[in-house]
Amino acid sequence: MKLIIRPKKGLGKIEVELPDKLVEEINRLSERYAVDEKRVLEIIISKSFREPKGNVEVLENEVRELEKKVAKLEKEWAPLRYKAYGVSEDNKLLAIELNALLAENSQLKRFLGKKIERNLELRKLIQYYLR
Amino acid sequence: MPVEIKVEGKRFKELKKLDLLELIEKNLSKVEKTLQAEREAFLIEKKARLEEKLREIEDELEDLRAFYEKALRDKELMTSVREKLRRENEELKKELEERRREIDNKA
After folding, report:
1. Contacts of A116 in chain B (CB under 8 A)
2. Rg of chain B's alpha carbons, rounded to an integer?
3. What does the pLDDT average to over B5-18?
4. Which domain range does residue A98 map to?
5. How many domains are there within chain B?
6. Residue A52 lies in a domain
7. Which of B10, B4, B20 is nearest to A13 (CA)?
8. Tell me, what's the ipTM?
9. C or N terminus of chain A, fewer CB within 10 Å?
């Protein structure tokens, strides 16, 4: 592998042929951290070294655990949403039926001169599902 | 294919004086640490995103569970009220029929 270094402005270049053993080491890092060889060399050439602040392996495990938790909850969410939608649709039909039955009930009571109950709570519930 | 890297002029001058092979060889362990630090930064961001997503799903699930449980209770209540009203309306219809017959008989 040949490495060529050029200045951003101006002329000139440095050329160097990297021995196989060194290329092997560069490739190992490149594969392990999923970056290309150029990136490995760039870090050295531009002296942009950094140190990890904590334990990367522990962090990897934490991320994996979180991914598992999210996947598990997502699995639970879809069927529950389906079930909730089903019951809510049943309730909508029940609300339509109840609306008609209440109207009939009021009319019958009116004919018979009986006291008509207001059923406020029930009417609120019916409106909620008719929305 | 050669790898070409561009550097600032000042660094270029520094590099011209150095043994590049030695520089690369000596700094490979530092590169590994740097790559670990980059991975760490990526993981910290990913962890924060996942934590936020987890909170969102947990909240949504809680709301959804509450909605489902309420819907089940409402269904039970509305079903029983429907039966009660059906029976009551039948009784009322009979009563009305009875009254009509009485009025007809009087007439």
Report:
1. none
2. 41
3. 93
4. 67-130
5. 1
6. no
7. B4
8. 0.71
9. C
A75 and A114: one domain? Answer: yes
Q: Could you tell me which residues are beta bridge partners of residue A3? A: A16, B3
Q: pTM for the full model?
A: 0.71
Give, as one character, the DSSP assignment of residue B3: E
* Residue A77 counted as domain residue: yes
Neighbours of A40 (CB within 10 A): 24
The residue segments making up the domain with residue B93 are 9-106
Q: Which residue stretches of A18-119 are H helix? A: 20-32, 37-45, 56-112
| Sign, Cα dihedral of B41, B44, B47, B49 | negative
Q: Are residues A32 and A74 in the same domain?
A: no
**Position B16 in a domain:** yes
Question: Does B47 contact A62 at a Cβ distance shorter than 8 Å?
Answer: yes
Interface check for B18 against chain A (CB to CB < 8 A): the answer is: no
Those of residues 72-101 in B touching chain A at CB distance below 8 A are: 72, 74-75, 77-79, 81-82, 85-86, 88-89, 92-93, 95-96, 99
The pair of structure tokens assigned to A77 is 């969410």
Residue B107 in this model has a pLDDT that exceeds 80 = no
Residue B70 counted as domain residue: yes
Interface of A with B in 46-75 (CB under 8 A): 46-54, 56, 59-60, 62-63, 66-67, 69-70, 73-74
Closest CA of chain B from A7, distance in Å: 5
Confidence band of B1 (pLDDT split at 50, 70, 90): confident
